[in-house]
Amino acid sequence: MMGFVRGVFLLLLPITAVAQAGDTTFVDVSRKSAIDFYHATFIKQSALFNGTLYQPYGRITEGHVFLGEDDFREGAIEFEGVTYGSVSLKYDLLQDAVLTEKNGTIIRLAQEHISFFHFAGRHFVRLEATSANRAPKTSFYEVLYDGPTTAYALHKKEIDARANLKVMESTKYFVVRNGALYPVRNRSSVLKLFPEKSKEIKQRLAAEGIHFRENVALGIAAIARIYDQLKQTTQ
Question: What is the share, in percent, of the chain residues with pLDDT greater than 90?
């Protein structure tokens, strides 16, 4: 590995020499190409693939255990403090496991080394359950809205043995206030967290045409966003 890193360093040496000649545009492009080459090659040799072999649940008659579609999607992940792009990812909601693959082998990544990941337009962060944040469990929470008042979703899948091993999915929602996660289910439960702005929030929801019956996640995220906007205007 050290030989590889030194090789990339040598690639950058002539770029530096050109920089001294004053052609900064060429330097920027060349440096980016070298760095992209480094990451594209390094990812294949990185600790990202030093996980354990994934063991799927074999007894399922209907549905699947993954978030979204039952296939790998290109995404990004922060693993051991390093962010990797263009990574094939899956999220097993039954085992709460983030998966990647290499040469046809599916690898289960060590959860404790993952800070966040995103794919298919969805972003997840790892939250450790503490008495302070009141998170129900240490897991990956989908970020519905990221602001001073954050909104999360916690997805889960289970195998229902009573329904011929059918996969059942459930989602719990949370809104953060004063550093703690509060469970919410519908519009009224979210508005109870913001009694001082409840009337104004309802007006904004109506004006934006947001209805909880159509999309609970969107509604929860909207209330958190609107509350932050209203609070900002009064400061």
Answer: 64
User: Angle at Cα 42 formed by Cα 36 and Cα 45, nearest 5°?
Assistant: 160
Residue pLDDT, tens place only, 18-34: 444 445 554 555 565 65
Interatomic CA distance for residues 159 and 180, integer angstroms: 30
pTM greater than 0.85 (yes/no):
no
Give which of 51, 135, 57 is closest to 95, Cα–Cα. 57
Angle, helices 198-208 vs 216-233, to 10°: value is 120
Structural domains in the chain (count): 2
Q: Based on DSSP, count helices (H) and strands (E) in the chain, helices before strands.
A: 5, 11
117 Cβ contact partners less than 8 Å away, ≥ 6 residues apart: 75, 76, 77, 78, 89, 91, 98, 123, 124, 140
Residue 89 lies in a domain: yes
Q: What is the pLDDT of residue 14?
A: 40
Model pLDDT for residues 165-175, shown as the tens digit of each residue: 789 899 999 99
Could you tell me if residue 124 is inside a domain?
yes
Q: Answer whether residue 146 shows pLDDT above 70.
A: yes
The residues near 27 (Cβ < 8 Å, ≥ 6 apart) are: 15, 16, 18, 19
Residue range of the domain that includes 15? 2-45
Which residue reads 């209805």 in tokens?
211
Q: Residue type at 230?
A: L
The residue ranking higher by pLDDT, 106 or 42, is 106
Whether residue 63 sits in one domain with residue 11: no
Same domain, 63 and 134: yes
The residue ranges of DSSP E strands in the chain, in sequence order, are: 52-53, 73-79, 82-92, 97-102, 105-108, 114-119, 122-127, 139-145, 151-160, 166-177, 180-184
